[in-house]
Amino acid sequence: MADERFLSGPDEVAAALDALDTEDAVSLPLLDESARRRLLAAATSVAYRPARAEIGSGDSLVRQNMEVCADFADSSPFHDFTRRFQALVRAAAARLGQNPFQGVLCLDDLVLQRYEPGPMGITAHRDSLRYINVAALFTLAGEARFTLCDDRDDRASRDINAAPGTVILLLTPGFRGTNRRPFHLVSDIRSVRYSFGLRQRCG
Q1: Mean pLDDT, the chain, as a whole number?
Q2: What is the separation of C-alpha 180 from the centre of its chain, rounded to a whole number of angstroms?
Q3: Are 136 and 88 in contact (CB under 8 A)?
Q4: Which residues does 91 contact at the CB level (< 8 Å), separation at least 6?
Q5: What is the CATH classification number for the domain harbouring 139?
Q6: pTM assigned to the model
Q7: Looking at the 3D structure of the chain, how many domains does it have?
Q8: Residues 37-57: pLDDT tens digits?
Q9: In whole angstroms, what is the distance from residue 139 CA to residue 30 CA?
Q10: Can you tell me the distance from the alpha carbon of 146 to that of 1, in angstroms, rounded to the nearest whole number?
Q11: Rounded Cα–Cα distance for residues 24 and 184 (Å)
């Protein structure tokens, strides 16, 4: 995979980072077909476990219907991919003149998610406070809706392009000093969806 190029370069990623000042998430084409297929093959060969059906309670209840994998062998292509993508984002940030991140960007939280077809993947929620700077969510396969909204009742919803091969840059606290954590959800899954998420843990 080291010889495969991203479809978006530092200039395009820098523009996307700039857009996060006013947008909660930005979608970019990133994986060419060869890279997407290679990562998808790796994603389909790992062991998944069912995610908890419900997280939280009361007004903070989140429902989810997916399987997850957070264990990656040392030989997994996702490690090399993470290093290359992180280098791309750092190069993009250098074009902005001032570091937009809290400290040094270090994408150290890796997770794969698999969704079976159905009306709901995960209801409206916000990423945990343990993550900072930016989340990168890659679609490896599947058709589904990725939606931003204003609250857990899915008000003022707007869809973000999550076609296979795209990456969604999602705002998290620490980016240019923000504390914003946008609500988002995955629904209307029309074919088996594989996604790969990269985040940075606090501290």
Answers
A1: 95
A2: 16
A3: no
A4: 10, 13
A5: 2.60.120.620
A6: 0.96
A7: 1
A8: 999 999 999 999 999 999 999
A9: 10
A10: 27
A11: 10
